[in-house]
Amino acid sequence: MKSDLKLVNVTKRYGETVAVKSINHHFRSGSYACLLGPSGCGKSTTLRMIAGHESVSDGSIVLDGRDVSYLPPAKRGTAMMFQSYALFPHLSVADNVSFSLKMKGVDATKRRTRAMEMLELVDMAKLGDRLPAQLSGGQQQRVALARALITEPQVLLLDEPLSALDPFLRIRMRAELKKLQRETGITFIHVTHGQDEALALADEIVVMNNAVIEQAGPAREIFDAPRTAFVAKFIGAHNVIALPEGKVALRSDAIQLTDAQAAQLSGRITAIEYQGTHVALTAMVAGEQEVTVLLTDKEFFGAPKETGEAIGLAWDARSAHTLSA
Ligand SMILES: Nc1ncnc2c1ncn2[C@@H]1O[C@H](COP(=O)(O)OP(=O)(O)OP(=O)(O)O)[C@@H](O)[C@H]1O
């Protein structure tokens, strides 16, 4: 399909370090993808190789049927938005946005018109004459977005775009990023180490660990059916439990409290944590394993429990996902 981006056996080595190890992935045109993983797993390196800011050691990057692996960044059909926004401090907002057009020799009137269109798109048209230092963090981010979008990329690459913002603004800007992606229809590839950010934004989540892709799929599939213990733990809200039949991932809200006869596991409560809408109850079960059960506040306060109490745990067999690693 047009504008699809394919990574074919892409590897990056820095001397002895393998930062990205022969990864394959197909990013669908027009989708919002999040590369999710812990620090050092290779997600920024992957993004930088797609952008052309880093060379590939092996493999190829194919955009829209073209091998772009050896093209300079400006010739690829991608644009990158950096974590620090990297705005020119001495240029006005409008001149920052239209900078790449100036480099291409586009005349001043046309540049200004295009810059204002882009600023309109990110809701910043009124501040075109300000300098970056006169903007808030969220406003600087919008300018950086407008500056990336003016190049009309097929793929927009975002490296931890929300990490410089305070928590309140982060949640607001993430809704705006999603809206912008839907409005423009451009493929977004967004690097994050925040599972909540990935779940909130992504059509597809690509989970990386130790230089490889552990699992990729729609956000709900990753959350509902993690395939490895790493994915289950990283995505959160799951227990990884060793049972006689093997290791399983079990959502903490998929476990019910039950009496001893009906229990699949029994144990003793070690901690109770009130979380507002829910109460998280931790129990120590056979084999010194800790299991967390998330109850709605209604369920918990309907039959309150105390630390030290014996409890039985049960779940629907379909909720337990056998793990491959
Ligand atoms: N220029 C470099 N030279 C040598 N090693 C590098 C270089 N850049 C990255 N690495 C190594 O490659 C691995 C992957 O780094 P990368 O920045 O892609 O991880 P990341 O998942 O984006 O982490 P973070 O979230 O901390 O940015 C790490 O082990 C890192 O130390």
Automatic annotation (TrEMBL):
Q: Which Pfam families does the record associate with it?
A: ABC_tran, TOBE_2
User: Which SUPFAM superfamilies does this one have?
Assistant: MOP-like (SSF50331), P-loop containing nucleoside triphosphate hydrolases (SSF52540)
Q: Name one GO cellular component term.
A: ATP-binding cassette (ABC) transporter complex
One biological process GO term for this chain?
A: quaternary ammonium group transport
Q: Which InterPro entries match?
A: AAA+_ATPase (IPR003593), ABC_SmlMolc_Importer (IPR050093), ABC_transporter-like_ATP-bd (IPR003439), ABC_transporter-like_CS (IPR017871), Mo/tungstate-bd_C_term_dom (IPR008995), P-loop_NTPase (IPR027417), Transp-assoc_OB_typ2 (IPR013611)
Please state every residue range assigned to the domain named ABC transporter: 5-235
What UniProt keywords apply to this chain's record, in alphabetical order?
ATP-binding, Nucleotide-binding, Transport
Instruction: Give a GO molecular function annotation for the protein.
Output: ATP binding
User: Could you identify this protein by its name?
Assistant: ABC spermidine/putrescine transporter, ATPase subunit
